[in-house]
Structure formats: structure tokens, C-alpha cells
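This part of the workshop introduces the protein records we will be handling. An example says more than a description, so a record of this kind follows.
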Amino acid sequence: MKVGIFTATRWEYAAIRRVLDDRRRHGHGGLRCSAGRRGNHDVVLVQTGIGPEQAAAACREAVRAHRVELVVSSGLAGALASARVGDLLVGSDVRSETDERMRWSCAGTLADAALRTAERAGMPAHRGSFVTVPRMVWQASDKQALAERTGAIGVDMESAALAGVAAEQGIPFVVFRHVSDLRDENMPVNFNLFMRPADWMKGVAACVANPSCVMGLLRLRAQMKTATDAMSRFFAQWLDELASPVGNGRS
């Protein structure tokens, strides 16, 4: 089976790439992409960039170029339920915060298998809904409000877009993400200020104005390392154990 694994950032990409054998770099329209193997499966690993638009475009290109048979949304996520940094969040379904009509079920058999893999690896795991947002949710109060409004266990900026492309192509889809920040903690700075070059100076000014920002960034970096190390362990074992895909559908 050819598995397409999609991450947003280079840190997430590197965490999964290190567990692949026979790695070969490919370029598609400026995308960072690697092809390799793990277990009995070919793997196409793609760094999409951050946000739903970039994720959808990258997924369409990768599906067209590589004919993947399973789409996996991977990387880091904000916890909207009780969890610890590094815990695995397995999606049962994913929705878009901005359009309630955009909601898809994840491949249930594969989600069940991921939970069994996590249990064998001694890795805490949680299963539930994901919500995809267009901007980073960086304040604890906003995460808590989003959790109450949606009932989701995790938030990211790409999964719904990837699910939409997978549904268009009739390809099974799953979400396996690891917790980088908790429901009850603020991020050290509003990272949305760094999403556009025009706002970079505002982001720098916000850091300068907040002396605790540096310590917060160091804490977040440590949490991201914990989460990406867990990603590597999980995907190595999951790919080794992966059987055949099952159907995916829109709910």
C-alpha cells in the first residue's frame, strides 16, 4: 500500500522522515516531499505548509503525482480535552470551524488499529473529534471555548482540508497527531503575527514587550520535542503493523 503522510512544518516532517527506509527526496511545485518505505508499505511524506489552503493544494498534488491509497494527517495539535504533552490524538471525525457542512469521518478500522499500536507502545492515546481552524488558537480561554462549542479533543489547521481532498478522490483518511500544547495553557506569543511577512514586526514587538516570552518559547520548544519524539516512535511501530485500508466517508 502507498501511504501519504502530510505534515505542516519541517519539524513534524523530520520526525517522520527519520523512521523511513530508502528515503528519496522529490520536488513537486516547490513542495518538500520524500518517498521511502517502512514495513511492507511505500510512504510518501509531504510538508504542506501551515493552513488549510496550503494543505489542500499539497494533498491534491501529491495524490495526483503518487497515487496514494491512504491519506494521513499528522503532526502536532493543540489539546482541547484533558491530555499530556506527547499524547496521541486519534481522530474519529474532523470538521471545519468555519463551515459546519465540511465534516468527514475517519477510517474507523485504521483508527482502532492505531489505538492498539499506541497501547502496545505504552503511549497514552485519546480518540475523538478534531476541529480545523484558519488561525492558530493560542490562548487557553479560546481553546476552552472551542472545546465547549465543538466537543473536539484536538485542534489543528490542516486536517479538514486534507480530509476534503481524500473524500474527493475516494481515499481513506485518518488523523494521528501528538499534543504540543495543553487546553489550559497559553502559548507564549500570538503566533498568528508571524504567519504573514507584513506582521513580523508586530510579532517581534510583542515578544520584546513581554519579558516572559523567551522562557515561554523555550518551554514550547521542549514540548514540541517531546511531541515529535513521540511521533517518531508511533509512526515507526504503526507503519510496521499497518494492514490494508478500509473505506472513508463524509458524514
